[in-house]
Amino acid sequence: MPSYRILVVEDFEPFRRFVRSTLQPRREFRIVDEAVDGLDAVEKERALQPDLILLDIDLPQLNGIAAAEQIRIVAPDAKLLFMGLQFLPVMIVEVFRVGARGYIHKLRAHSELVPAIEAVLAGKQFVSSILDLMDSANAHHQHEIHFYSDETVLLDRVSRFVARALKVDGAAVVLITPERGESLVRNLKADAIDVDAAVQEGTYISVNAVEALSSIMIKSVFDPNRFSDNLNSIIESCCKAARAKHPHIALYGECCGALCAEGNCDAALQIEKKANSLLEAYDIDIMCAYPLSAFHGADVERTFRSICAEHTSVFLDRTL
Predict the structure, then answer these.
(1) In the chain, which segments carry CATH 3.40.50.2300?
(2) pLDDT tens across 196-250, in order?
(3) What spatial distance separates the first Cα and last Cα of the chain, rounded to whole Å?
(4) Homologous superfamily in CATH for domain 4-127
(5) What is the second-level CATH architecture of the domain 136-316?
(6) DSSP-assigned beta bridge partners for residue 127
(7) DSSP string computed for 48-59
(8) CA–CA separation, 233 vs 231, rounded Å?
(9) Residue pair 82/55 in contact by the 8 Å Cβ criterion
């Protein structure tokens, strides 16, 4: 069994004690040293060259992000795994920008510390889950949320999401801006999807996201009855048109992201809650897209957490 040398950088002694007690029973992990501030971390990385650095994001003298930037200069291949008590989208982007491979929320470290270390050492990425498990009745369905800043990355993800359903004789509903909708169609055609035939059959339905919002909002207030009537009608139409006996539906939406960008995150949260009822009624997976720039202001962390909690999976654009 391989042995991995780990440098722990954390200024809070009780949490360092927790890390020690968690890792010491694992023979494959060996804590070679501990540091209590960012400057000390840089020096100990240079001297020890550990296999992994477990790095607190909020450190004295030199914070975790600044320390990581200096560490990458002296050790470009160093594997960095951040820890912290916040979960802000902008902060997560910064973590990956400086070359880290993961981020653990400290409140979930009891269950995620070891899996995160294993993932990072294996060359994978890891971001702490802040989600409660969905009811077992709909746990096999997905309600994903993608926070993006790169248009190309988003389109690639949406294309794969929609193509999966169409390739198994299912159907797809996309609530999308017209320009991005045209790009999506080009991507699908490049993947050998006959989009024109799917449109004619009724298994590919594209709706302008702005028009979709106007149909379910009354003076900036979400109308759940209109939402149910409109979406159920579209999905039922797809189910009848699909060739499969029990067709799988892919639903992609940009409406909630647009609402957050306008500052109406409360309405977006209500829509996400209502969308979860679709998982119980249909064989459906849902993917939502939110621009990272939509999250700003004093209450951003609460809003971000609340919206994430309505989804089964959270994905962040890590291209920065």
Answers:
(1) 4-127
(2) 999 999 999 999 999 999 999 999 999 999 999 999 999 999 999 998 888 999 9
(3) 35
(4) Response regulator (3.40.50.2300)
(5) 3-Layer(aba) Sandwich (3.40)
(6) 103
(7) H--SEEEEESS-
(8) 5
(9) yes
